[in-house]
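$ run holo --ligand "flavin-adenine dinucleotide" --emit tokens
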Amino acid sequence: YPNLSKLVVLFTVSGGGLVAYSDANPISGYQSIFPVETENKKKRVVVLGTGWAGTSFLKNLKNPEYDVQVVSPRNYFAFTPLLPSVTCGTVEARSIVEPIRNIIRKKNMDIRYWEAECFKIDAQNKRIYCRSNKPSNLNGKQEFVVEYDYLVVAMGARSNTFNIPGVEENCKFLKEVEDAQEIRRSVIDCFEKASLPNLSEEERKRILHFVIVGGGPTGVEFAAELHDFVNEDMVKLNPGVKELVKITLLEATDHILGMFDKRITEFAEKKFKREGIDVRTGAMVVKVSDKEISTKERSGEVSSIPYGMAVWSTGIGTRPVIRDFMQQVGQINRRALATDEWLRVDGTDNIYALGDCATINQRKVMEDISAIFNKADKDNSGTLSAKEAREVIMDICERYPQVDLYLKNKQLRDIVDLLKESKKGVEKESIELNIEEFKSALSQVDSQMKNLPATAQVAAQQGAYLADCFNRMEDCEKDPEGPLRFRGSGRHRFRPFRYKHFGQFAPLGGEQTAAQLPGDWVSIGHSSQWLWYSVYASKQVSWRTRMLVISDWTRRFIFGRDSSRI
Ligand code: FAD
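-- output --
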């Protein structure tokens, strides 16, 4: 390496046998770390993030011909679908996390982990700037630079407050393990506070009013968990408070669980109503103070809701480092990094983005869909019979599963429902589908179709796909005509990423879950709860966490949840 004499040994990374050096960079003043060049020069792959996407990439990467460095402020992987269960102590926080070093230890590869956050990506010079989140112990050496040949950006997203005043300061979020732990403490705090002497009835009611903002799967699951916790555990310990506790779920649109089948939405709304959970739809939060939430109804009426604890769960926003990087690569006014269908960031050559921080720019969705229609419309009549239309729609839904997921557009939904009915044997063969009408309905949801849902399922599949590409990259270069289906031309050597939707769950409390599985199969109730238990136990990243989670569930069945505030 040039200027070796100036290099100062900073530290030795044990195990991997690599030595990292510090080079006082005269321009930026950052410490720079990089591996000593080995004879067998390996390509450096830097992975940002240890969430679903980053961990799935690492777990599936098998080619030892890379020098891999992982940068993340979190030295563990967290099984986020069980976070709502942590908020009330159904499972313990430590049961759903796996140290990232445990995951990389099992791989026979050069993988090193740095506990730090990346605060700048310099795409031009192929380097990232990082900062340790333990600054106080490092005597000012907490910042460093890591150089890469390939960068895998899997930094996830942050909670979105939509800049509504008071949200950041007064609401709890449910995004990280620490958030779930904080909510758990805060719920118990509210009960203890409300039990103190000298409080008016009104004040006790306010303290025990739990408000959840956002009727998506996370908000709904948390409301259900909280309701179970109160009714199964807290009332036994504080019998007097049952009449004072209130749970309110605020949702700005017309229904909770809007992305689920309407049978699930209706069931959840009715169940919550029966159980006394106040579901207020069409209520937009406009301001939050330390004791009150102001909402604006469709009619324009503004009302104030006194609360003891509020949880904000309304969706995700962009991390500042991603926003800064988006500007660098000319992607402005977007929520997430646009990539092509091979997960490569638009406007870059060797940077990939996956998971919640990315969105696939499927520019050709409408073109593809038109082509499918035109092929089916053999007689050029502009209409398709029900049979033809059904085949076309199934083809589109398979190729773009998000079409089926995001069909909020009424006209489109009706057409698809009609065709699905006709598939079930209901005689609708006489209907004809007007192609232009259907295309125009589709184009209205075009922007939604371009986005895959921000879920662990998508992130994990993207991580596995990209690792597979990296595993085969070298083989492909050596043998471009090989069996790996290179494209005839262009810069992409692999098949594009295709998402496979395996269904989704919405736990509704009281040992009942709603499950929506592919093929329009919906199941709600106790049997789905057992399916939920099996799927989530089987999806754990290690046997250790699997055993811990199962033992937490068993403990809860036998002893109930622990209400100590620790
Ligand atoms: P994350 O998993 O969020 O990981 C991001 C990683 O990047 C983290 O390790 C983080 O520490 C790291 N990072 C952050 N900033 C930096 C930085 N500056 N530098 C380096 N690293 C950084 N999905 C489902 O499919 N099913 C569910 O049931 C489900 N339930 C959910 C429940 C809750 C409460 C939540 C919050 C989410 C749930 N999701 C669910 C969504 C799912 O968790 C996300 O879609 C998924 O985590 C996205 O994966 P990711 O790897 O993109 O991001």
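-- notes --
The longest helix spans residues 456-478.
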